Task: inverse folding
C-alpha cells in the first residue's frame, strides 16, 4: 500500500521541494497550505497532474479540518513545515508568527494526537509526526570554529526564532506527556529554486538581473551555513522514515559564507552568465545598508549525527548549488516575474525596533 503523508506548508519554498521529492518517489502526499504570500501553487506545476498529490488550501490552526483530512486520507504520518519564516517580517509584525508557528503547531499536534490515538496498534507504531525547524532557535555563535549541535541550548534572538523555539518545545512536550511519536530537525539557511524573493539569495539574483542595488546589511560580515534545498528534502525524508522517535537531527550544508561573500559570488556568476551592457561588474551594484535589529552574527551546523545515524551527506557545494540556482532564475521568469510585479517588488522590511 502506498504511504500517505500529510505535508503542511507544501506550497512554500522548502515544503514544495519536499513535496516534489516525495511525489517523484511515488509517495502519496496530501499537501495542506494556507497559500499566504509565500505559498505558491506554481511551485508545484511539475506535479500538478500527479495522481499521488492533492493540494488542499487550509489553515493548520483549523484542528477539525486537519483531523478530517487525516481520517479521510488515512494518513500514515505528518511532515510539518508550515510556518511564517522571514525574520524581517517578524520584526514588523510578530503576531502572525505567534499565531502560525506557535498556535498553529499546537492545533496540529492536538489533531494529530486525537487521530493517532484512534489508529489500530500496527498503524500507531508506524505513525510519525516530523516537526521541521531552524538553527535560529539556538541564537548565534561567535566568529570561531564552534557549531550548533542537537544539545545546544536554545537562545532565540528574533520574534521568528522565538516562535519556532516555542513550537519545538510544544512538539517535545507532546512526545514526553502524551507519547506522540515525534521526530524533529533543525536546518541551516536553505537556497535553491522557487525561493520567495524576500530572502538574500533570490533577492540579490533578481535585483542584479534588473540592475537594481544589491543591499547588504551592516558590513556584510554576518555568517550563515548554506544548504541546497534539494539536499534538505532528502535529509527530511530520512529523518521522517528512519529517525529515532523523540530525537532531533541538525541538517546543515557545512558551507559557511559571510553575507558579503554570498552577494559577491552571485555577482561573479552573473558576470559570466549575463554580463552587464556597460561592461562593469554586478559587484558595482552592492550597497551597504543599516543592519537589522538583533541580527545574529553567525550560524553553523554540526550535522555529524544525521550523517552517522542516517547516512545523509549533502550532494551540492555552495558553488554548485548557487550555479544551479542562478541558472534556474534566469530560465524561469514565468515563476518570479508575477511576484516581483505584484506581491513583493523587493522593498526593505524589518527596520522597526518598536
Result:
Amino acid at each position: 500500500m502506498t504511504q500517505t503523508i500529510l505535508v503542511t506548508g507544501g506550497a512554500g519554498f522548502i515544503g514544495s521541494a519536499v513535496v516534489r521529492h516525495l511525489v517523484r518517489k511515488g509517495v502519496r502526499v496530501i499537501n495542506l497550505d494556507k497559500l499566504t504570500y509565500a505559498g505558491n501553487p506554481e511551485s508545484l506545476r511539475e506535479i500538478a497532474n500527479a495522481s499521488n498529490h492533492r493540494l488542499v488550501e487550509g489553515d493548520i490552526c483549523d484542528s477539525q479540518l486537519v483531523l478530517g483530512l487525516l481520517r479521510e486520507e488515512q494518513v500514515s504520518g505528518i511532515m510539518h513545515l508550515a510556518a511564517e519564516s522571514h525574520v524581517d517580517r517578524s520584526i514588523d509584525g510578530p503576531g502572525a508568527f505567534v499565531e502560525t508557528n506557535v498556535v498553529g503547531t499546537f492545533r496540529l499536534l492536538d489533531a494529530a494526537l486525537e487521530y493517532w490515538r484512534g489508529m489500530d496498534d500496527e498503524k500507531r507504531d508506524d505513525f510519525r509526526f516530523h516537526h521541521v525547524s531552524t538553527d535560529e532557535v539556538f541564537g548565534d555563535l561567535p566568529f570561531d570554529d564552534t557549531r550548533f549541535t542537537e544539545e545546544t541550548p536554545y537562545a532565540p534572538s528574533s520574534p521568528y526564532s522565538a516562535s519556532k523555539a516555542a513550537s519545538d518545545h510544544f512538539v517535545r512536550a507532546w512526545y514526553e506527556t502524551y507519547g506522540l511519536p515525534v521526530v524533529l530537525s533543525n536546518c541551516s539557511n536553505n537556497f535553491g529554486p522557487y525561493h520567495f524573493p524576500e530572502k538574500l539569495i533570490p533577492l540579490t539574483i533578481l535585483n542584479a538581473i534588473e540592475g537594481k542595488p544589491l543591499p547588504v546589511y551592516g558590513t556584510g560580515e554576518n555568517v550563515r551555513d548554506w544548504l541546497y534545498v534539494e539536499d534538505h528534502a532528502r535529509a527530511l525524508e530520512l529523518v521522517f522514515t528512519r529517525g529515532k522517535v523523540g530525537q532531533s537531527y541538525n541538517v546543515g550544508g557545512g558551507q559557511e559564507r559571510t553575507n558579503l561573500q554570498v552577494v559577491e559570488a552571485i555577482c561573479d556568476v552573473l558576470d559570466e552568465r549575463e554580463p552587464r551592457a556597460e561592461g562593469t561588474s554586478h559587484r558595482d551594484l552592492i550597497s551597504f545598508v543599516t543592519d537589522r535589529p538583533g541580527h545574529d552574527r553567525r550560524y553553523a551546523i554540526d550535522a555529524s549525527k544525521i550523517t552517522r545515524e542516517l547516512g545523509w551527506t549533502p550532494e551540492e557545494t555552495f558553488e554548485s548549488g548557487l550555479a544551479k540556482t542562478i541558472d534556474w532564475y534566469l530560465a524561469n521568469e514565468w515563476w518570479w516575474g508575477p511576484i516581483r510585479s505584484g506581491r513583493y517588488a523587493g522593498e526593505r522590511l524589518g527596520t522597526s525596533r518598536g
In short: The chain is about 40% helix and 15% strand. The first strand starts at residue 4 and ends at 8. The first helix runs from residue 13 to 24. Residues 348-354 have pLDDT under 50 and may be disordered.
